Amino acid sequence: MNAQINGINLAYSDQGRGLPLVFLHAFPFNRTMWEPQLTALSSRFRVVTVDLRGHGESDAPLWRYTLDLFADDVSGLLDHLSIQQAVLIGLSMGGYLIFSFYRRYADRVKGLVLADTRAEPDSPEQTAWRFRLAQRVYQEGAGAVAAEMLPKLLAPTSYQTNPALVQKVRAIMVDSQISGIVGDLMAISERSDAVPLLSTITCPTLVLVGEMDALTTPAENKRIADGISGARFQIIPSAGHLSNLEQPEVFSEAVRSFLETIVKN
User: Fold this and answer.
1) What does the pLDDT look like over 122-172, one tens digit per residue?
2) If we measure between CA atoms, which residue out of 93, 117, 122, 96 comes closest to residue 221?
3) HEC states along 99-120?
């Protein structure tokens, strides 16, 4: 499905009924990364997955991207779908987007699931790395981001035991638009420090992280959970950064269990 939001075309899927869930994908992926959760959860909840601008089937304008702009796009999509409040579920960049969304639209948030993400801003070294990667992608194409990032995204064992997943992850990355990749890198590098925001988050929150996540470590995710009053924290065993794809059953069940507490209340 498609909607005209903030002057661009946004692609999304909308399945199921009940408590609305909005899944926000990682960099440089698209909404297809949430297929296991869409299958597992749409029989009980209303599951919305969206291709952020620059990704998947959404428009990829060549212009400046920011996480606040992504947040406005998501709010516009909620308006389009007549959803006043939703549980937001974001992994990595999707988590950064959640922080921006909460700053701007806290009243629209019923609950949060933050997965494999980070509250701290980029260090100068991380910003410099993103700049160099953006130049490589501009010169060499999307394959450059796959070559740079694919070895870091999964648990070490996944590269030997799950070649189909490795290929799927790579295929999504190399199919990404250059304008979206570069726009993401700029938006991520300029994101605000979310650490001061944590103590202001009052909705039910679950923080998930892969046991072997080398990009946003369990320690970093534990700091997020510790900073949010009442937040749950769970480590996904035998998973790296893309914990929802490496251990989809465990990830989906953790989300389902958390959501049931929101429905009961």
Assistant:
1) 999 999 999 999 999 999 999 999 999 999 999 999 999 999 999 999 999
2) 117
3) HHHHHHHHHHEEEEEEECCCCC
Tokens of 230: 């009442």
Interatomic CA distance for residues 221 and 119, integer angstroms: 8
Q: Which residues contact 17 (CB under 8 A, 6 or more apart)?
A: 45, 46
DSSP state of 233: E
The pLDDT mean for the chain works out to 97
Cβ neighbors of 146 (< 8 A, separation 6 or more) are: 170, 173, 174
What b/e string do you get for 137-168 counting C-beta neighbours within 10 Å, with b at 16 or more?
beeeebebbbeebeeebbbeebeeebeebbee
Q: What region, left, alpha or beta, does residue 18 occupy, with left being phi > 0 and alpha being psi -120 to 50 degrees?
A: left
- Please give the CATH number for the structural domain made up of 2-264: 3.40.50.1820
- Closest CA relative to residue 177, chosen from 216, 120, 138: 138
Do β-strands 8-15 and 46-50 pair in parallel, antiparallel, or remain unpaired? antiparallel
Q: Percentage of the chain surpassing pLDDT 70?
A: 100
DSSP state, 66? -
Assigned token pair, 68: 């606040």
- Only one residue has tokens 């997020």, namely 224
Q: Are 232 and 258 in contact (CB under 8 A)?
A: yes
Query: Locate tokens 């009961």: which residue?
Result: 264
**pLDDT per residue as tens digits for the range 69-120:** 999 999 999 999 999 999 999 999 999 999 999 999 999 999 999 999 999 9
